[in-house]
Write a structure and sequence with these properties.
Enzyme class: transferase
Subcellular location: Cell membrane
Largest sheet: 5 strands, antiparallel
Catalytic activity: ATP + protein L-histidine = ADP + protein N-phospho-L-histidine
GO molecular function: ATP binding; phosphorelay sensor kinase activity
Structural class: alpha+beta
Number of helices: 7
Low-confidence stretches: 139-147
Number of domains: 2
Mean pLDDT: 77
Radius of gyration: 47 Å
Number of strands: 5
Shape: rod-shaped
Distance between the termini: 62 Å
Domain HAMP: 170-222
């Protein structure tokens, strides 16, 4: 699996839909060929045999070549007749019996019928001493097959269907992309991130939960900063009193050490207060161009 597929939820879902759709198509095709082929074949053969019997009645018995030509031209069919004293075909290019492979018809002995690419709907029947090969309808195809235009239409339909599925899936999973952007902003320190959604499903609730989480983080950080600020203010007064009291004592190493500790503590408090002032709404630095020439 390529890295792009592993890192893209949209592509994974599309592949799942594609696999499911392909499986359905394969299953439907196999079922159609398995359950419907025999029924279609028998239906086509029955139609061909019934039509052939009608033609045989028109040809008469024994068959006459002039009558056969008349029937062939009138009905626009191909005819070949073999029998005692007769070996006739409606055209010189009309195939022989050996050149045409038709499946046997179980409903009539010594009869074959079906569809062939060259002759279309055809029948090969034996009536008394004569054998007839009849091309009843040209342009036929085997049962279950389809023409090129139908195949192209099916492919286009499947492509359009897959495109619609992809676009719909992308729209349904749009909150995932929004969440990804929001998490990236939060990770970079943009605590004021807030994502909008009108969805009420699971992904919509996930966006709402993320907004609540970001809001909670902001409030806790603000509470922490406020606590540090309050503590800093409260500590300054005792430190000042301690410093005044120390000024009234005699100089010693202990006094200097305590004064140094007080100064370090005051420096840290001043740094905290200055940081809070700079981060406040009206206390931040404002950058402006200045002409130094």
């Amino acid at each position: 699996v390529s890295p792009r597929v592993r890192s893209s939820l949209f592509l994974k879902i599309l592949l799942v839909f594609l696999g499911a759709f392909t499986s359905i198509i394969v299953y439907a095709s196999v079922s159609y060929w398995y359950f419907d082929w025999e029924r279609q074949r028998l239906s086509v053969q029955t139609t061909a045999i019934n039509y052939a019997q009608f033609i045989l009645e028109e040809l008469g018995h024994p068959p006459d070549s002039s009558r056969a030509r008349e029937v062939s031209e009138q009905l626009e069919i191909g005819v070949r007749i073999e029998g005692p004293g007769v070996d006739w075909a409606s055209s010189q290019s009309f195939p022989t019996f050996d050149e045409v492979n038709l499946p046997e018809y179980e409903g009539m002995a010594m009869s074959r019928a079906g569809l062939t690419p060259s002759l279309g709907l055809s029948a090969d029947v034996i009536h008394e001493d004569y054998r007839y090969l009849l091309a009843l309808q040209a342009g036929g195809m085997a049962p279950g097959s389809s023409n090129t235009s139908e195949d192209i239409a099916d492919v286009l339909f499947m492509m359009i269907l897959l495109a619609c599925v992809y676009l719909l899936t992308r729209r349904l999973l749009q909150p995932v992309r929004v969440l990804s952007d929001g998490v990236e902003q939060l990770r970079s320190g943009q605590l004021e991130v807030e994502m909008e959604t009108r969805r009420t499903d699971e992904l919509g609730r996930l966006v709402v939960s993320f907004n609540e989480m970001a809001r909670t983080v902001r409030e806790r950080i603000k509470a922490r900063d406020q606590l540090l600020l309050d503590v800093s203010h409260e500590i300054r007064s005792p430190l000042t009193r301690m410093r005044v009291a120390l000024e009234m004592t005699e100089d010693s190493k202990a006094k200097q050490s305590i004064i140094q500790d007080i100064e370090e503590t005051e420096a840290m408090i001043s740094e905290l207060l200055e940081t809070e002032r700079l981060e406040s709404e009206h206390g931040g630095l404002e950058y402006a161009p200045t002409d130094l020439s």
